[in-house]
Request: fold
Amino acid sequence: MLSFILRRIFQSVLVLLVVGLVAFAMFRFVGDPIDTMLGQERTLEDIDRLREQLGLNKPFFLQYWDFLVRAVQGDLGISYRQGRPVAEIIAERLPATLELALVSGALALAFGIGLGIFTAIRREGVTANFIMTVSLIGVSLPTFLIGVLLIYGFGVGVDIRIPFTDTVINTGGMPTFGRGDTVDLGWWTTGFASWDGVQSIILPAITLGLYQMTLIMRLVRAEMLEVLRADYIRFARARGLGDRAINYRHALKNTMVPVITVTGLQLGSIIAFAIITETVFQWPGVGLLFINAIQFVDIPVMAAYLMLISVMFVAINLIVDLLYVLIDPRLRVS
Reply:
């Protein structure tokens, strides 16, 4: 078990190094930060002095090595745009992204697994078929379009007239911009401490988690149907076990191994793909920070963001590998 963990950690570190190298190579094609930092009245002496000050006159691999050495020490550099430490900027923005990812991930897991089990057990029912048909919306529509539709439907609102009455109900009123009222706890800034903050996270969380929810639901349903056709399930029915014991004690447990794989990757992608949702709803997280950094060619911020996302993906994959061993006894034997 120890050798397995060490081998996975070594692979994770190697992946982080490769991702960082690729990211640094891409930054050379984003643009020259000197153009955005100096005005039109700049001289060649000003350009050379700033390049030397920022270390941009060094060879590519030496710049990457300097970044890695500083990152290990907790120094992610200074933002070209704001002139502040990048670690401090990310620490301010990270709580917003993590809270959004936490809520959307919880919704995706709860509804995805629950609806997947329901549609597998009641696969011939009208409700299950209706859920499967509606779930195509979450798979088909792009994230930004879902966000725009939610803003129009529940932010701006539409008027709905109740039949046979003069009563008109407007579906709008939900916050669609920003994070709402937040409370600073010193080491964390949360929006869960106020009703306005809770309302503000509802639409972005649904937008971000809808695709993951439908994907998890369809995967759970497919795996559940396959497990329910297995021989040991038929033997359990022959022994006289009830449907609840068969479905939840035997079938569901054996369904979770492939589900954990996709679920782990999807939880990582929630954080990575929060860029689109944060842009649509102007959510003040690290995704929106990355978009602004691209516009101003703020290389330290872009490098720190990509490394942060890589660390999260690698950590989630490592946890998934360890969960394999805990859930499947055959892996422990091997």
Q: What stands out?
A: Residues 93-296 form a domain with the MetI-like fold fold (CATH 1.10.3720.10). Residues 86-121 form the longest helix (36 residues). The mean pLDDT is 80. Strands lie at 159-161, 168-170, 183-184, 189-190.
